[in-house]
Specification:
Strand content: 5-15%
Oligomer: single chain
Strand order of the largest sheet: 1-3-2
Number of domains: 2
Radius of gyration: 34 Å
């Protein structure tokens, strides 16, 4: 088979590079919104690597691909800052400033989200647990994601294992090719993040995802808990029966001793009565 010509490769490459540009503006902005948090759940576990080799933001990389996307991103960032003017303090005079970059400039969106809570605008250096590409104060983190659960709680309360919660890092024998093939289709991977709590590394999961995962693995979770409770009670009764059977001869001997003692006392009483 003859190799493809250079013109064919150029056409294919051009189509691939231009594919995002051909999308409607509304769909492009959905992609931009999705990339804004740039969540890396294991960031706290790789602090040494990230301090020395911190990758640029995904939107910054996207803006650097071509001039057309850069213009779309600048327009979207301006719209974002203006829409949230109550916390970003965006001014109408910014619209007329020539050469102002609303995404990557000194006062652009990426500059702003590195220093301010995206929900209230307060200055903070704390990242959201489940969206650590965004700054978020403690109060807003609890308000936006109120139902979070630690890995220990997920394992104890929902009878899950490490390979259920973190299949990429705790391989199960049935996931032998996970490292090469990625997460198999059909496996539910709950959203999670890592953070420091009292100088201890903690992994937090979204509670609704953990519940959905437990339902997928155990079936109806309430019925599963009821079945486990019955099985535990049956094991307890079986164990008590075996233990009781082991101590039954001693109880018989004790009863026999009591009977003999009673007979002796009774004979003595009779003898005493006769003697009287």
């Amino acid at each position: 088979m003859a190799p493809p010509s250079k013109s064919t490769l150029a056409n294919v490459t051009g189509e691939l590079q231009d594919r995002i540009n051909t999308l409607p503006v509304e769909l492009q902005r959905v992609i931009f919104e999705y990339l804004l948090p740039s969540h890396r759940p294991d960031k706290e576990l790789q602090r040494e690597l990230l301090i020395s080799k911190k990758p640029p933001h995904a939107l910054y990389q996207l803006a650097a691909t071509c001039r057309s996307l850069d213009q779309q991103l600048q327009s979207w960032a301006q719209h974002w800052l203006k829409s949230h003017a109550a916390i970003t303090k965006y001014k109408q005079s910014h619209d007329t400033q020539p050469g102002r970059r609303f995404l990557t400039g000194k006062h652009g969106l990426l500059f702003w989200i590195k220093r301010r809570c995206v929900f209230c605008g307060k200055q903070t250096h704390r990242s959201a647990i489940l969206a650590n590409g965004l700054r978020c104060c403690i109060a807003c983190d609890k308000g936006q994601w109120p139902d979070k659960i630690t890995k220990t709680q997920a394992k104890e309360e929902y009878d899950l294992r490490d390979h259920h919660l973190l299949p990429r890092y705790h391989h199960h024998p049935s996931y032998a090719n996970l490292a090469k093939l990625g997460i198999p289709s059909g496996i539910i991977v709950p959203r999670y993040g890592t953070c420091q709590v009292a100088n201890v590394m903690t992994t937090m999961f979204l509670l609704s995802d953990v519940q959905r995962l437990a339902e997928a693995i155990h079936g109806n979770f309430e019925m599963y808990l009821a079945r486990r409770k019955r099985e535990a009670e049956d094991r307890k009764e079986t164990g008590a029966g075996i233990e009781g059977a082991g101590t039954e001869p001693d109880a018989s001997m004790t009863q026999a001793e009591v009977t003999v003692d009673e007979l002796v006392v009774e004979n003595e009483s009779v003898s005493f009565h006769l003697g009287a």
